[in-house]
Amino acid sequence: MAELVASEKPGRNSASLRVDLTAMVDLAFLLVTFFMLTTTLSKPKAMDLAMPVGDEPDPVAAYRTLTLCLGSKNQAYVFRGMADKPLAEPQIVDVSGKSLRHLLLQLKQQVRQATGKNLIVVVKPSDHSKYGNLVTAIDELNITGNYNYAVAALTGKETDLMKERHLD
After folding, report:
1. Cβ(129)–Cβ(165) under 8 Å?
2. Is 2 within 8 Å of 21 (Cβ atoms)?
3. In sequence order, what E strands does the chain have?
């Protein structure tokens, strides 16, 4: 417990006091331990992902679709339309840089002007792509306002195209 010890020194009129704070230090450590164990340091973050409802999807015009095939070198193989017959020359885009954002904004504007509808993006990660690239691609879609997107598996044709370009 705390004790107050008074001792007199020769030659002085006042008494010196010594306070024992052992119990106060014990209490402080108990409080620190309690608050460390009962608080959360950081809350887990989750990304909202809306999944379609229903059995059969409605057909979508090839002009409105963009496919991002994520590869192993922080790059994506990007084409519009179908893999068998793309509407334009397929591109290889750096996922971690600003080129993906620029491409998404440009195509969103083109599709909006031509059809009055939104661009639909299909993100297809390969077996060798990094999880961070998928998150980056979805973040870029949200930043650019492309909210119509889906995550799907690569088809055989898309896998072959990526192997030809050494992205897989």
Report:
1. no
2. yes
3. 4-7, 16-19, 65-70, 75-80, 91-94, 120-125, 149-151
